[in-house]
Sequence to fold (598 residues):
Amino acid sequence: MKHIRNFSIIAHIDHGKSTLADRMIQLCSLVSAREFKDQLLDNMDIERERGITIKSQTICLPYKAQDGMTYQLNLVDTPGHVDFSYEVSRALSSCEGALLLVDAAQGVEAQTLANLYLAMENDLEIIPVINKIDLPSAEPEKVSLQIAEDLGFDLDMIQLCSAKNGTGVDAIMEAIVKLLPPPAGDPDAPLQALIFDAHYDPYRGTIISCRIINGSVRPGDQIVFMSTGAVHKIEEVGLFRLRKESRKQLSAGEIGYILAGIKSVSDATPGDTITLFDRPCNKPLPGFREIQPVVFSSIYPIASDDYEDLASALEKLRLNDAALSYQKDSSAALGFGFRCGFLGLLHLEVVQERLEREFDISLILTVPSVRYHFYLNDNSELMVDNPAHFPDPAKISLVKEPFIKASILIPERYMGVVMTLCMERRGENTNYHYPTPGRIELTCELPLAEVVFDFYDRLKSVTQGYGSFDYEIIDYRKSDLVKLDILVNGEIVDALSQLVHRDNARARGLSACERLKDEIPRQMFKIALQAAVGSTIIARTNISAFRKDVTAKCYGGDITRKRKLLEKQKAGKKRMKTVGNVEIPQSAFLAVLKSDKD
Fold:
């Protein structure tokens, strides 16, 4: 065990975690130059295109150190995005150490601090690393001082490297061997293994990534999942190299995989504890919780014939993504679809993109909403995430909505516009401090519903891309919530309904009407587009009718002839309006989702 090191790389988004992992894999000669490609551990197309990590990946690196000994380095590459922070926390609890990566040009950012606190909660030994020292705008001395002053590390602990061209990676490998502690654990104790990730293989079932804390496990053993009590028989255990390498056993301190014919990823929840059926351990490992969806949206196929395909696509996606939850839903305007729960907006985008790309289905998503708590007059409590289930306003005594604590890191010059943005979004208790000269960290309490809509995009645009944003949900607070309905030609379009704060209802309603006006084609009669709260119309625009000049053939003569023709035309338009149907094009539903500033 003293030749094993389990560590993770943690950093803000885009600070170079996956690139550093690539260099380490090359240094340990796990991959030939011909087979090498960038972002080696990211195996989804979306991950490569966007340059982000979505799923945790593990790799076991054989490293020959300067002292002549060969060490087994287990690297867990984690996602940097805030939506996947629970996955990151489980991955960190399977390690003894972490490399904290900081960009030499950007310095310490919001997610750097959030991940550092997660690592400290898990009592990890941390090695600070400054990456991208080859950039023209790099300021390693300034960032070193920032790390020393803000995060409390000694200057001589800080490693400098450029993951892109491989400078300083040897020194980091030596630091991992010398500074990080080997795992502790008893190979002879009852089995205790932590699941920190799982992914689905269509031929073998679920592949569980786990860390053996105590005991050992072999093929043929019967194992129990402590949260569900499910029993499975192990078919294979092994280590993650670039391909899976089977072993005769995994023992305490090692990170590897277990295959046991498990049908879906949702049966192997991250954070759960595995133990042996005939020799169980006393208690499960701490920190396990059910993953709760935060953002909700309904997904409908553009062509109603694709409903069955969408159902099977979601079923297949669920095998790989345990955090996705869905149930059947229907709408008068859009037909049958599914109401889905996501961990956040990035998770929503990833699911939408995978459905469109991997399963070739064109989709419409309704306005994302969050889960509200309604307290009714009869003392019952109701959780609502869909505007269709909004209770009768007369029965509601209190509404609570989720609030988040947002920390926003920005250059000093953008302070004014960001403060204005937070105030527009009903921000409270705004505080700020200067982590370094020229940079401000703003902390602000915001309703999650305001952030879900388009906050991140607006923050990026007002700060010209320099703003970074991280949040955690803190509590539920009292709110004045109303249901905003959109009426087209006097009829409510249920797919466009939204739950909004009363103060924002008119602005949101007017914006939706203006967008629909641009998208719905003109008819032979006038169409009224209205936004309503209950029975009160709060905003309205009209789409004017096509007008045929029926008096063109009347030259001179009595004025009553023209009047008669105009009255006849007016009666015809009135009749048309009562029986005419307004077809709403699919683009109109997508247009309403866009914010005013797009």
User: Anything to note?
Assistant: The longest strand covers residues 396-411. The radius of gyration is 29 Å. Residues 295-366 form a domain with the Alpha-Beta Plaits fold (CATH 3.30.70.870).
